[in-house]
Amino acid sequence: MKRSLAILLLASVACGSLHARIELPEWDSAADAGSYSLGGGLWPERLIPGGASENRAVAETDPDFVGPPAPPLPSPDTGLAGTEAPAVPSSPGPFYGPVAGTEEGPDLSLQRVRENPDGTFTVPEEEVAEVEAYEPLPPLEGELADLYFAHAPVEFLIDPQRLLTEQKSNDIMRFLEFHSDESKIRIYIMSFGENQKIPADIDIQALHQKWFSDSPAVLMLYYREQPQLTELVFNESIRDSLPKSVFDRILQNCLREGAVADLAPDQVEKMAIELSIQLYWLSRLMEQEKDGGKALERASSIHELVASPDAPELLREYAPGIFIDENGKALTFVLAVVFILGGLAAVGCVAWVVMWWRGRENVSGEPLLFPEFRIAHRLGGEYCGGGFVSMSFELNEGSA
Amino acid sequence: MKCPRCLRPVDHEAASCYSCGYSEADAAAVFGANQVLLNRVHDAAHCLRKQERDTLGETLDMLEVKFPQMLFCVYLGALPPKLGLSELGFWLLNHGQVKGAEYARPNENGILVVMDLNRKQIGISLGYFAETLISEEDAYRALTAARPNLVNSEFGEAIERIFLKLGKVLDRQGRKLKKLTREQLQATLSGAKNTLLDLPPHLSPPKLLPKPPSQEDDARVSELMSA
Q1: Testing the interface with A: which of B72, B73, B94 to mutate, by most A Cβ within 10 A?
Q2: CA of A364: which chain B residue's CA is closest?
């Protein structure tokens, strides 16, 4: 009896398990399906990249599709196709979410990857847009040359061919104006093409002398994206006042800064900034030279010029040989003299003490007893055998 | 050592000089065989001031304290021309008796400074024991050190300086002798290594002895005789 009850209970449980089903959520109706919006209505549905339309397409073709139904497509007239669309903000208010249609979305790049039957993936080759080379510039002749060299420059940046971007040009010009306000030596920058050459009949040094003879200025000749060709033209008075190594160092520093950047506007900007810094220290150096360096320069070599007392490491960097601290040198000399004299005095004292100790005639201390012994007599003397040492103290005679 | 008269080298056990035959008997014949009484600073020439004599006496006192065995004395005189200073020193040390000298300071330990103001000479006579402690070089160095004072007639300071220099020599010698062993000391002080004459080596080649006559020479002599 009990066995039959157990079998019956087992059979009823097995039948119940066979008829059991998983309760899944179901859409109430087909009309409600379109009202569901991906993202919970946080941003407009049309900005969601492709997800809604794909879901709609899949839902139409596949009856077993259980994903969220796609929202209605926007129409050009109404904006939304569905009449029962939820209240999605369609006004052009401030929006901070992802922007639809941008190329930076990761989905588009992933969609182009196709999977092969053998498990590998094929990545389509992207067409790399080649950077267009600069158009060849005309040679510096005629009117173009006149734009550069006919008249003295009015602005600090001379770029009639618009080789630099407008924004950078404005920035550089503002910086050069600021520099001219702060420094006595102004900076003028001429920008040329990389293949352009200054005409042979134009002497830049003479032009510089003609244009800037009354006021110190530096003319920087820059060739687009060729910073190594950059030239600096100084006033003759400035060149004569300082050694050539100083100007070489300035040019090297400017070229080093220009080589850091790749684009022409950045190169010009960096080189202008570096040139400004270098000119600041150059002016400081010239002031120092004017104050007291003339006589010192004549008397001493270039490498013994007095450095500014507050000259920082930058100043010493490009002219280490000439910035020898005169005060430090004098101090070193004084210390050396004191040291030598002190050493000599110490040696003299030690020598005097030694001489005094050796030559002292004071016989003091404990009584000294000599060992006694008998010595044979000679010449019949009982106490003395004739041991004798004599000397003459006559001025004209020697010792006997 | 040297002969006081001829200044030739003399062996350390010679009874008289090999060159001139000088001995103490000759000195006694000249100066006398009697004993004489000397002051420690015997100024027969009267060339020392009292202050100099006092200062010199203090120095000698200090030296006698430092060296209880040694005798320090001075004879200053104006000697006749024919009288040798070395002979006088030799005789004084053998015949003089220094006042105040104790038994512990016999004349053989004496250091006698003799000065002749007439000939401007000064010398140091040493007794037997003092000879072993003070070499001729040290004695001469002490005299040389006092030469400036002697030239300036500062005799008191000069003699004081001489004694101080000799005192330093004695001090150094005493410290050196303390380090020696008994055998080394005996060999050093007794002059065992210098038993012969301390003469310089002769530079001339030794004379060769004549050859003995051979038989051929005899035959030749007989032929000559027969002819």
Answers
A1: B94
A2: B66
Confidence of residue B2 (pLDDT cuts 50, 70, 90): confident
The span from the CA of A368 to the CA of A356, in Å, is: 23
Q: Which CATH class is domain A142-318?
A: alpha beta
CA-wise closest residue to A226 among A185, A183, A255: A255
Q: Is B169 on the interface with A (CB under 8 A)?
A: no
Compare CB distances from A381 to B62, B94, B168 and report the shortest one's residue. B94
Domains and CATH numbers, chain B: 1-33 (no CATH), 34-180 (3.10.310.50)
Looking at beta carbons, which residues of chain A come within 8 Å of B197? none
A363, A378, A390: residue with CB nearest B12: A378
Range in A121-130, A184-193, B100-109 the model is least confident about = A121-130
Contact criterion met (CB < 8 Å) for A384 and B132: no
Alpha helices in B43-108 (DSSP H): 50-66, 85-95
Q: How far apart (Å, rounded) are the C-alpha atoms in residues A32 and B120?
A: 153
Tell me A293's DSSP state. I
Structural tokens at position A239: 């060149």
Mutate to test the interface with B, among A361, A384, A395 (most CBs of B within 10 A): A384
The residue of chain A with its CA nearest to that of B21 is A379
Domain limits of chain A? 28-77, 142-318
DSSP sequence for A239-282:
HHHS-HHHHHHHHHHHHHHHTT-SSHHHHHHHHHHHHHHHHHHH
Query: What order do you get walking across the sheet with B41-43 strand by strand?
Result: A387-392, B121-126, B110-116, B71-77, B41-43
Q: What is the ipTM of this complex?
A: 0.77
Q: Of B68, B110, B121, which is closest to A390 when you measure between CB atoms?
A: B121
Looking at chain B, which residue has its C-alpha nearest residue A377? Answer: B13
Specify the amino acid at residue B203.
L
What is the percentage of chain B residues whose pLDDT exceeds 70? 80
pLDDT digits (tens, 9 = 90+) for A351-383: 999 988 876 766 777 888 888 777 788 888 888
CB contact under 8 A, B189 and A375: yes
Report how far residue B199's alpha carbon sits from residue B124's, in angstroms, rounded to the nearest whole number.
Answer: 22
Cα B99 to the chain's mean position, in Å? 22
> Does an H or E element contain A222, and which?
strand A217-223
